[in-house]
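Posting for a labmate who doesn't have an account.
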Amino acid sequence: MIIDVHTHLGDILYPGGGEQICEKGARKKILFDPILISEAVLFKTNSYMEWLMDHVLEDQITKACRARNKTATLENMRCSMDEEGVVKNVCLPIAPNLLFEDLQKAAEVDAGIIPFTTVDFTRDYDLEATLSRDVGKGAKGLKLHPIIQKEPLTSKKTFEAVEAFARFNLPVLFHCGIQSYYTGKEKFTVQDPSYGELHYARELVAAFPNVSFIAGHSGMFQCEDTMKLLGSFKNVYVDTSFQSPERVKKLISVFGPEKVMYGSDWPWGSRAAVIKATKKACNGDKSLEKLIFFENAQQLLKLGA
């Protein structure tokens, strides 16, 4: 029994991303994919490897991520869930590219989908009414992506959105960790990777102590910053995507076993690799596995028995 708290369905990078959900036969483009190496070694890394990925392989990693993004269809998601024993998926929209409505329609077809809602920072609208409607239709949380949405977690608009969502007593999952999603000219115009830095996240979670936050990917390569800057906050949860067994152990130690949850970032990440890394971190403790793979998410998302 596994709940994956961090997945994507549809194209999160460009407007109209919901159209991709129903595509059939989508396969990943054949290209050099450095992420496969990381997954093969269960995300174990060192300073040299991180430097290599940041300064030499950045564009190749970005291209590989974009190729994986193109496989985010309902057909592929269901196949992946069945293969790895995942019973529920948290699917994360990123407005204006992918909307709650896109995921809600998919959830009507596949009960394994748990949709979150999103905020469209590009336009003015009745945010409170929209969030209320989305929660009423099944949204179990709010997704913020400061890099792709180009809106820092500390902005007035972000604070207004979190304040409006706070009354639902549901989690807010934000991306944290520096990452690039675009190539060419878009790399410098439609994103701001620096918004993934952890000091933004710290200011946000400190401002809303009564809101539960999920730090997406535990900060990726900035996992140590995540533990240092967010570890003392009782309202912060983390997911295990892209983290090695050693770092998952540290996350459990810093945040507590009740605040760590399995997340894969599918299809950007491998479910199987994260399952192996998480199980290795649990070192045979079945009660701990049950918490991380299922019970923590079940309680936080109010999924019932």
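Reply:
Got it, the structure tokens are right above this. Residues 286-300 form the longest helix (15 residues).
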